[in-house]
Amino acid sequence: MKKQWLLISILFLMGSSVYAQSRKYISQFSHLQQYYNPGLAAYEGSMIRGFIRNQWLGWEGAPKTYFLSAELDFGQLAGETDPGLLGKNAVSLSMHHDTNGAFMDSELILGYASRVRLSRTTNLRLGIGINYNTVRLDGNKMNTQQASDPVVVRYLGSFANMEILDFNLGLALTHKNYYISYAVHNLNGGRLNNGDSFMDGKAVSGIFQGGYRNKLTDNLALATNVMWRNQEDLLDNVEFNFKVLLMDKMWIGAGHRISYANSFQLGFIFGEMRMGYIYEMPMLRSYLLPNTTHEFMLTYSLFRGGSEMIW
């Protein structure tokens, strides 16, 4: 019983009636660059990506995330193989599904990216994404705090659905060894919506990403990434990771989400396929549930000649 009340309290603190302000975490953010920034679509070449995150394993109603995307670089269709020149024109389609207590959130993002060549090895990438978001509220799964909220209480014991159409913009400076990018999500603040109004739009969010990678020897390479997110009514989110790639076959690494969690990662490369796993542990002072989080990632390159190394 104590465990149930603890989960209820934490889910309430994460958002409850102000669900539009909640945040979705992905420790393997560096493998899903195009989701955060449409300008990075097909930065690693034409890819299919799949991802599962099971947060606080063992707790009923704990967040679960599923992700599937496809990226296509038109240059690769024409036979381009230089990784530094890919991305002149690229498209992406991302599907993100998240469940968190009484809420079920699904996103469909269609993105387009274009590259401007600055030098032989450096490019400026611009991107735009159209974001269609559906949120479903199951009134049978409300906790006690949500049931007393004047906005969502009218849906107690029933269902509510809300649809939101919004836009994302992204800008990135890229090189085969590094990238620096900034994107803005929900430019319109969720004002284009339809259905039941159980949340007050969606807050505009700014996302900075950066990374560096390099080969030290033929059998050893390093990669490090950082992400910073800013959103109204939420604390800034800063996280980073560090990976070591061995013999172009396996990577090991660690990550940290400031004030929230530490993670350890392991991945394997099988030709055009990559498999990654994250084991995440919340920090005691973060007031999160003590249970661990697991992430599984799978990517597949559609053509040869994409990214030579993992991010």
SSE map:
Layout: H1 2-14, H2 33-36, E1 47-54, E2 64-73, H3 74-77, E3 89-100, E4 103-117, E5 123-138, H4 144-147, E6 159-174, E7 178-185, E8 192-195, E9 205-217, E10 220-231, E11 237-246, E12 250-257, E13 261-270, E14 273-282, E15 293-301
Antiparallel strand pairs: 1-2, 1-15, 2-3, 3-4, 4-5, 5-6, 6-7, 6-8, 7-9, 9-10, 10-11, 11-12, 12-13, 13-14, 14-15
Give a written overview of the molecule.
By secondary structure, this protein is mostly beta strands. It has one domain (2-15, 29-301): monomeric porin ompg (Porin). 8% of the residues lie in helices and 52% in strands. The chain has 4 helices and 15 strands. Strands 1-2-3-4-5-6-7-9-10-11-12-13-14-15 form a 14-stranded antiparallel beta barrel. The radius of gyration is 20 Å and the shape is globular. The model is unreliable at 1-21 (pLDDT under 50).
List keywords for this structure.
Porin; 311 residues; 52% strand; mainly beta; 14-stranded antiparallel beta barrel; globular
